[in-house]
Automatic annotation (TrEMBL):
PANTHER family: GLUCONOKINASE-RELATED (PTHR43442)
Keyword vocabulary terms for this entry: ATP-binding, Kinase, Nucleotide-binding, Transferase
Name recorded for this polypeptide: Gluconokinase
Statement: the UniProt record of this protein carries the keyword Kinase: yes
Originating organism: Piscinibacter terrae
Record-linked Pfam families: AAA_33 (PF13671)
Enzyme class: transferase
Length: 163
C-alpha cells in the first residue's frame, strides 16, 4: 500500500517472486472510467473506488495466498480488504510528497499524472498503529525492502515448495 509512485508494483513483484505467490496488480481492476479520470488529471473519490475495492476484496477472498498491490490510502479501504481476507497484512511504502512527485514525473507514459500526487497525500490515512502493518522506507533499495518484508512475514507455505 501507499501513494502513487511509492514502489508498490516493484516491491510487490519482488515479494511475490520471493514467496512463490501470484502477484495481483490492483491497478488492473480499476474500471475504465477510473483510469480515464486519473489520466485526465482528476482524483478518484470514495465513490469511484467502491467498485474497485469490492473487486479487490473478491480477488483476495478467492486466493489462499497472494501479493496484491493496492494504494489502500484510507483506513476504511484497508478494513474492507481485511474483512475479505483474515490473514491480510499490509506493507506501507512510506515516502515524502516531493519524492513521490519526482518518481511519478519520471514516467510520463503512465496513467497517473504528477499533478495528482498532492491529492494522494491529502487522502492518505497513514496506517500507523494498525495491526499487521509493516512501515518501510520506500527510498531503500528493492533488495533491502524485500529482506525487511520476508523477515517480517510469518512462516507460510510456498507454492514452489515440493510436497
Ligand atoms: N525502491 C526503489 N528505489 C528507487 N526507485 C524505485 C523503487 N521502487 C520503485 N522505484 C521506481 O519508482 C517508480 C514507481 O515505482 P512503481 O511503479 O513500482 O510504484 P507504484 O507504487 O506501483 O506506482 P503506481 O501505483 O503509480 O503504479 C518507478 O519508476 C520505479 O522504477
Ligand atoms: O486510490 C487511488 O487513487 C489509485 O489506486 C491510485 O493510487 C493509482 O491507481 C495508482 O497509484 C496508480 O498510479
Amino acid at each position: 500500500m501507499g501513494v502513487a509512485g511509492c514502489g508498490k508494483s516493484t516491491l510487490g513483484q519482488a515479494v511475490a517472486d520471493g514467496l512463490g505467490w501470484p502477484l495481483v496488480e490492483g491497478d488492473d481492476f480499476h474500471p475504465p472510467r477510473n483510469i480515464e479520470k486519473m489520466k485526465s488529471g482528476v482524483a478518484l473519490t470514495d465513490a469511484d473506488r467502491r467498485e474497485w475495492l469490492q473487486a479487490l476484496a473478491q480477488e483476495l477472498a478467492s486466493r489462499p495466498h497472494a501479493v496484491m498491490t493496492c494504494s489502500a490510502l484510507r483506513r476504511v479501504y484497508r478494513d474492507q480488504l481485511r474483512e475479505a481476507s483474515s490473514g491480510l497484512r499490509f506493507v506501507f511504502l512510506d515516502l515524502t510528497e516531493a519524492q513521490a512527485r519526482e518518481r511519478v514525473a519520471r514516467r510520463p507514459a503512465h496513467l497517473f499524472p504528477p499533478t495528482l500526487v498532492a491529492s494522494q497525500f491529502a487522502t492518505l490515512e497513514r496506517p500507523d498503529g494498525e495491526d499487521g502493518v509493516l512501515r518501510v522506507d520506500a527510498t531503500l533499495s528493492t533488495g533491502e525492502l524485500l529482506g525487511q518484508v520476508l523477515r517480517w512475514m510469518p512462516p507460510v507455505p510456498s507454492s514452489k515448495a515440493t510436497p
